[in-house]
Every structure is written in structure tokens, then in C-alpha cells.
């Protein structure tokens, strides 16, 4: 994940650029070698750093082709035709994609699936239409992902996006970044990354502290439930790259180690160490009250990866 985090740092450092862009996507996916079709969806945050160059972070879900459930996070560098003015603009991007793939092993006995992780290059082209006197835009994007020795995919996505012009991106709602500390109680649903996608009720308690204008640090106690697949709890610590979209709303991406006190049943090696990769948004309801929603991916080496969807309320002090 180091390459993705370096891209996030560079993205956060681009404070002088005039616009931030948040885009949601949905579309179709083609598995090239297997000649299969599936759906695809994603969300991206992009930041132009000059008239013709930009950076982006993308979460992409590659659907459910036969025997594969793959998604991942990408950091990309973009070349653009020009500033985002009313009418059409075009861009091409390239970068690295860290993927998580739940794969059917077709074994008669023992493990039935595996959670495969790895890096792959991602290449993208996009066409964007900006409306007159509006910050809304529509976008068409094509992505090509080619993991070494694995199925390559091509996705065609249609997107709707919004520009947050004129926002520096630092913690604008604060008198100073060191004053942002919060305790947040959250609950939600966990989904085991298996071919059956078992679910469980989960809880978490998060301590968050701003350690810079664009960087947060969190310590989170997590209980992933009590089923055979989800019986795991522990403490995660993460560094977050944070960007404010306006004085009340901020988005971010975090990553760090997850130390498990209890681990679920699983075939083969079981480890008390895992990784946690997160994407989240916070909304400052009042000076002391903040709402938070996060998607978290638990990354393991014993085939018990999980998605943790959490929402909660926090007290800021």
C-alpha cells in the first residue's frame, strides 16, 4: 500500500489547486481472457495540480465474474486537455492498483476459496462534460487493469461528479488542526470476503486526532461479530489523508496495522496481525458533534478478509 499512500500524500500537498472533484461511477466490466461480463462501480477523488496535470484516488469494484470477486484502490497521474470549463474536456491517466480478489479454488476438500492481493497497472481515459453555470458534470471513463499472470479487465463507467471550487482542502472548520480530537462510537455490518459473503453485526470505538492540516491519526477498537467467519476483534491504528470539501464536510483515506486479540476460524495459518485500509467521510453537525461513515477493508494472510461498514456519532474536543 505504500505507493497508494505516497499518491495520497502528493494529493494532499496540492493545496493551491483551485478545484476538488468527487465522482461516483457505475457501468459494465469485461474480463478479457474469459470473455465474461459483469458490473462495475466506483468512486474517485481528483485534484488538478496545474492546467494540464492532475492526481486522483479511485476505489473500484470489478463486479462478480465467475469464481472472482475483485475490487481495489488506485492512485493515478492524469494529463488533461485543459481547465475544467463548460463543455467537453478529455484526459488520460496511469497508475498503480492494489487489488483484493476472492477466488474459488475448486478444491474437493479443504479451503474452497482464497483472498488474493497484489499490484497491477491501471490505465484510464475519460471524457467530461461540464455544464454552464454549474459545478455538476458528467463523465465517461474507460479503465484497463492488467495484473501479471491473471485476468485483465476493461471497465466502461458512466459518472456523475461535483466540483468543490475555491476550497483549500485543509481543516477549514477548525481554528487550528491540533484542536481536532474526537471520540466516535460506531456500529454497522461486516461482510466476510468469501464466496458466500457471510454477514455480522459489528461495533467500533474510534479516537481521532489531527496531526497536521491534512493528516489525521486514529486508534480504533473493533469487534467484528461472533460468527465462525467473523469472530475477530482487536485494535487498529491508521494514518489518514484528509481533505475538506467545505467547512463542514471532509473525506479521507487511511491505512495501518490491525492487531487482533481474537481471530476467526480458518484453514491454514492464522495470524494476530492484519492490515486495515479505509475510506471515510465526516460531517460536522455542530461545533462538538460529528457524524462519520467509513468503509474498511481488513487485509489478512489467512483468507478471512472482510469489509466493515460503519456509521456513528462522535464528540469533538
From TrEMBL:
Span of the secretion signal? 1-19
Query: Where does the source fall among the domains of life?
Result: Bacteria
Which keywords has UniProt assigned to this entry? Signal
Which SUPFAM superfamilies does the record associate with it? Answer: Porins
User: What protein is this chain from?
Assistant: Outer membrane beta-barrel protein
What is the species listed in this Swiss-Prot or TrEMBL entry?
Answer: Duganella alba
